[in-house]
TrEMBL record:
A motif (GXGXXG) lies at residues 16-21. SUPFAM superfamilies: FabD/lysophospholipase-like. The keyword Hydrolase applies. The keyword Lipid metabolism applies. InterPro entries: Acyl_Trfase/lysoPLipase, NTE, PNPLA_dom. This is Patatin-like phospholipase family protein. Coiled coil: none annotated.
Length: 263
């Protein structure tokens, strides 16, 4: 009797990136269509939202529809007189509709959510406890959103300290796929200060991502995503399909991935 080899554990890390994080949904959908099931997901900020949808068993295309149908950003309202201009807590209602059990450990597959403890100045990985609170903390861009309070401490966007949280996958997975949605194309001039600041910020997080990419067996990074504004909801659908096509192309041409699925 031939003994069957145990299935390899495949993990995926999802970067932060605002609305560009919808690219993760397109990438996840491509892998689903290729017959791949992930054993662990790790995500920061927008990557934590996409990762939560996947880990809850919500089809990525339905995740896109949720963004399109609810116009998720309209749930964000000003938080006047606070430490941020916008109150991200207003996203809770729409998230509760799709995550009614609200526990990370109740998801269908393990999910790690990366956030920054702003009170203590350190990185935190949530693997259990309230799901929605962890998502809000991980997505809370300081200076734009009011910090999320957890056990009397302030939490903000995980991307401040780790925008590509591959570390939780290293000892849990045999094969790691990276999904980054912040690729920058070369430019020869910039005319707006806002574009200059956004590009500088993305260059900083990309430098850290490139260092960590060596831990990934496969990296998918749709070209030019970094040019898209963090809150440009009008680009949501095109982001999804560009990323989906990029993932399909990478799946077909990656020798290491083809070897993985054929073993």
């Amino acid at each position: 009797m031939t003994e069957k080899k145990p299935k390899k554990k495949i993990g995926i890390v999802l970067s932060g990136g605002g609305i560009r994080g919808i690219a993760h949904l397109g990438i996840l959908k491509a892998f689903i269509n290729a017959g791949i099931k992930f054993s662990h997901v790790s995500g920061t900020s927008a990557g934590s939202i996409a990762g939560a949808f996947y880990a809850a068993g919500i089809d990525p295309e339905e995740g896109l529809n949720i963004f399109m149908r609810t116009k998720l950003l309209r749930f964000i309202r000003p938080a006047i007189g606070s430490l941020g201009l916008i109150n991200i807590e207003n996203m809770r209602d729409v998230l509760t509709e799709h995550f009614p059990h609200d526990k990370i450990e109740d998801l269908k597959i393990p999910l790690t959510i990366c956030a920054t403890n702003f009170s203590e100045g350190n990185l935190v990985y949530f693997t259990k406890g309230p799901l929605i609170r962890a998502i809000l903390a991980s997505s809370c861009i300081p200076g734009i959103f009011r910090p999320i309070m957890i056990e009397n401490q302030m939490f903000v966007d995980g991307g401040i300290l780790n925008n590509f949280p591959v570390e939780p996958l290293l000892n849990n997975c045999d094969y790691i796929i990276g999904s980054s949605c912040n690729h920058l194309k070369p430019v020869d001039k910039i005319t707006k200060i806002s574009n200059l600041m956004q590009r500088a910020g993305i260059m900083s997080i990309n430098h850290d991502m490139e260092r960590k990419a060596k831990f990934c067996d496969l990296l998918i990074e749709p070209k030019g995503m970094g040019e898209i504004s963090t809150f440009d909801m009008k680009k949501a659908e095109s982001i999804y399909w560009v990323a989906y096509e990029e993932a399909l192309k990478t799946i077909k041409t990656s020798e290491s991935f083809q070897e993985l699925i054929n073993t």
